[in-house]
Amino acid sequence: MLSESSLFLKGVLLGSTFCVLMTMLGHIRVDYGKRRRHYEHRHLQAPNEDILKLAGGERPELSKSFRVYCIILVKPKDVRLWAAVKETWAKHCDKAEFFSSENVKVLESVNMGTNDMWLMMRKAYKYAFDKYRGQYNWFFLARPTTFAVIENLKYFLLKKNSSQPFYLGHTEKSGDLEYVSVGGGIVLSIESMKRLNNLPSIPEKCPEKGRMVWEVSEDKQLAVCLKYAGVVAENAEDSKGKDVFNTKSVGIFIKEAMTNHPNQVVEGCCSDMAITFNGLTCNQMYVMMYGVYHLRAFGHVFNDVLVFLPANGSDND
């Protein structure tokens, strides 16, 4: 009996001690920040004004040297967005082509013959590289929900060397993998395209088809392939450090700015040199087109010293 009472008292004592320790530990703040691995994106910024101090004769040649080929990945269900993109920003590419999962009679496209987005992306890159490698030095890929200001893209690329192995856009992190989100659009240099298309089809390095135990998005699979090819992902920013490739629409950014920066809604929203916005409807595509290319404020004159002229035969408006 005495032994049982002794064991009971020991149990109560140990339990009480444990509770006291847990209470004390609950008030101790542990600084996990020092343990967490510090990570910063690789950043690429837009050129400063020095790049624009060019002789008059140099500017047209510089303008002509930046040729952008646009790849838009679509599916039949996207036909209204597809038509909106074709009638709006795609006209400002030096050449734009739509790559569809199947043949669609109402709109012209290159039939990829698959619903797998990664396989569509890979086949589109191969098609573009094989057919146009000698004509374009930058390749821009987007979804039909993306609106792009191609002139701002060309301006951003002024000081970038297309013979270097990198690709850019809005970078994100997944574990140890850094990748450019397809939502904001993806830009590959011609060197990156060359390395991607020269990769041997080795499943563990760059699978030809998106066959995984778990679903992996096409932009992450592209990042895996490019990583093995020695191509690095770069986050694109303006001179103030604001992202220029955006994975959300202007409307969402404005809404967020009204909450976070109520006194600077417009200034706190987005970069003045934004290249892309994503998540747009058909109507929003036309609104963006009007606002970017047609609306002018009387008395405000913008004298850009460099003009990117459309390609010969283009219906660029």
UniProtKB/TrEMBL annotation:
Cellular localization per UniProt: Membrane
Designated name of the protein: C1GALT1-specific chaperone 1
Organism field: Muntiacus reevesi (Reeves' muntjac)
Membrane topology: Single-pass type II membrane protein
Gene3D superfamilies named among the record's database cross-references: 3.90.550.50
The family this protein is said to belong to: Belongs to the glycosyltransferase 31 family. Beta3-Gal-T subfamily.
InterPro entries, alphabetized: C1GALT1/C1GALT1_chp1
A GO molecular-function descriptor: glycoprotein-N-acetylgalactosamine 3-beta-galactosyltransferase activity
